[in-house]
Structures are given as structure tokens and as C-alpha cells.
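Task: sequence design from structure.
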């Protein structure tokens, strides 16, 4: 009620839940998880590093099951290091999220980081990928979704274009023409 309106009026921040993310580690991760599920009208994305789900695994799991996956949840990332201990609580919450319909991909990323411990060094190592997941838009010309722009994407575009598939409409005008070829090449 106070901080978000102040930030949005004093900084070049876009208002609205669709533009708000939060993240935290350990108990901050637990709070981030709770907030994105409890306040979907405020936050649409969260990254939760080494969440202390073990603090009260039954309560956070029960809460998530009771509210379900918010309609406005755009992206949720959570992780846990395998050398942290108490990984069972992470796996319970992770399974609950999957049971409720989240699948790894555009909206959900889950990571068990092999050998990672519960400290800032390991969280810092995982931060860049988590931020890319939270804030980077998908790479539109990566038509075969392999994470690399290469000849496979060019071939896929050509096949889609020749088949009249709307996925090749890179100008968004509903017509497949030279403009779409130019738009694809420019994005590529």
C-alpha cells in the first residue's frame, strides 16, 4: 500500500502486477513464494532461491494447494542445492506445483543444483539464469526452441512460411509476405 505506489511514482517503473517481480533466498525465498501466490494482484513473477520450505513445509504446501496456481502467475522459479540438507520439503512443494498444473517451460522453472550449499556464493551462481528466466522474453526467431539461433530455425521458418502457417507471420498483419521474411531476418 505504501512502498509500491511510492516506487512507481518516483521511478520509471511500469505499474501493475504484470510488471512486478520479487525474489529472495532462504527465508526471503519462502516469503517470495508466499507473496506471489497470496498476492497475484500485486506480483506476477518470483524467484525463490533455496527456499526455507522446511520452516513449515506442511503449512506452505497446504497454502499453495488451497489457493492453486494464480491466473496472473506469469513466471515462477525456485531452486535448492543438493548439499543444503532438508531437500525433502523442496521436493514436496515442487511436486505440489506440478500436481496443480505447472510444467517446466515458459512459466515454471525448478532446479536442484548439484553440490550447491545454502549460502550467497551459490545463490549468486544461480542468479543470472533465474533472472534470464524471469525477465527475458522468449527468443521469437528460435522457432525450434533449442535455445540456439541457427540454420534449423531458418529451415523451420521457411517450412512454416511455405505452408502458410500463421507462426511465420512475423509482422502480425495476418498476411504472409516479404515483410515477414524481412522481420524474421531482422529479429534473427
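Answer:
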Amino acid at each position: 500500500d505504501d512502498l509500491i505506489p511510492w516506487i512507481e511514482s518516483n521511478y520509471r517503473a511500469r505499474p501493475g502486477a504484470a510488471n512486478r517481480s520479487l525474489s529472495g533466498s532462504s527465508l526471503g525465498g519462502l516469503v517470495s513464494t508466499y507473496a506471489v501466490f497470496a498476492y497475484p494482484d500485486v506480483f506476477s513473477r518470483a524467484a525463490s532461491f533455496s527456499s526455507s520450505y522446511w520452516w513449515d513445509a506442511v503449512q506452505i504446501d497446504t497454502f499453495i494447494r488451497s489457493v492453486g496456481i494464480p491466473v496472473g502467475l506469469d513466471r515462477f522459479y525456485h531452486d535448492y542445492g543438493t548439499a543444503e540438507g532438508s531437500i525433502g520439503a523442496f521436493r514436496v512443494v515442487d511436486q505440489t506445483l506440478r500436481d496443480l498444473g505447472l510444467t517446466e517451460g515458459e512459466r515454471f522453472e525448478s532446479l536442484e543444483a548439484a553440490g550447491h550449499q545454502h549460502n550467497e556464493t551459490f545463490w549468486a551462481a544461480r542468479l543470472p539464469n533465474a533472472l534470464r528466466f524471469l525477465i527475458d522474453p522468449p527468443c521469437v526467431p528460435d522457432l525450434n526452441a533449442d535455445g540456439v539461433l541457427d540454420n534449423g530455425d531458418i529451415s523451420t521458418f521457411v517450412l512454416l512460411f511455405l505452408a502458410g502457417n500463421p507462426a511465420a507471420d512475423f509482422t502480425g498483419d495476418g498476411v504472409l509476405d516479404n515483410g515477414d521474411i524481412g522481420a524474421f531476418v531482422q529479429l534473427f
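The first strand starts at residue 21 and ends at 25.
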